[in-house]
Specification:
Shape: globular
Strand order of the largest sheet: 1-2-30-29-28
Structural class: mainly beta
Helix content: under 10%
CATH architecture: 7 Propeller
Radius of gyration: 19 Å
Distance between the termini: 6 Å
CATH topology: Methylamine Dehydrogenase, Chain H
Number of strands: 30
Strand content: 35-45%
Length: 380
Amino acid sequence: MPAAPMDIDTPASSGAASLSVSRNLRDTSTELSSIISSFRPTKLFAREAKDKAPTYILSLDFDDPGELCMTSESDDTIQIYNVREGRHDKALISKKYGAKLARFTHWSSSIVYASTKQNDAIRYLATHDNSFIRYFEGHEASVTSISMHPGSDNFISTSQDGTVRLWNVASKQWTGLLYLNKPYLSAWDPSGNIFAVGSPAAGSVLLYDHRNYTKPPFSIFDVVEQCSTVDQQNLLQGWTKLEFSNDGKHILVGTRGAGHFLLDAFDGKLKAFLRKTDEPTRRSAVGEGNGSPGTPVDPTRLESSGDCCFTPDGRYVIGGSKQNVLAWDTLATVGENKVLNPAFSLEDKREGAVVAFNPRFNFFATADQALVFWLPDANA
């Protein structure tokens, strides 16, 4: 059955009639397995390029209620969109510092984001008036990940300076500091009691007790040992994402290669190699990009907040590719070779270099140069 037409929102057509996105939203109590194959690109937000230079989206995030979607972009802006109404809400300009890895705090009107120029501070911003609340200073090289605690005002940052820093938004001084070998990725487990740090250079995922983080990690998952039989190329490089599933059973290690690693969150064993059946996206892995201010934008040198993620029920992993969005079913039977092919390929001609799933609704977004909202097709 043909998909419903996609609504396109550009500066030139901002006054055009808009599809009613809100009436199609379904909360996550709807069983995702019954609709996962029916997702279609529903709304396209295409920004007008300035001086004919393309703008690329670097990160995607949703606020806790799932009402707002936020991007950070290569033109030093942060864009916020209203999910229910399917419209652009506001633009925040950060020309002096640049912007990447923008994350909502637990207040939808405030965000934190990393810098791309000037210095390596993390900035705490009130979005209602575009005013800075606080700077989080301490990193001496590019920040590679920012992870908000699932239930409190704490967050973790990792950096190319070899440090992991723990922060509370109420204080400009870091509350905890770890020195590790290229700790480029971080993630909280759904309880908020455990955090993980991914070190591609060490080929390891380290798990810490949040209450006793000054002690050595209570568990170290050896990605090289577990995953060498399925992928020789991205064991010590090429990592793009680290994420716990909301059911706490799995850890996802995304890569820019031929697939992603799905690990058991309790013992670190490889559960499945999520094979990409379409060409991977062009973005660099975390810590491997070298795009610099003032040079022409090259997407192969840009990093992103990740081209794969879990669905809120923890069952599926969705991932972008050069075209189409892939969906893997983590409950599917895996053979002895541990290779799992996508259960579904959702058609789209645009690259899905950045991917995020809404925490409250069966709704996700993909992005590269444009932002795309995806909804299940009621007629499928």
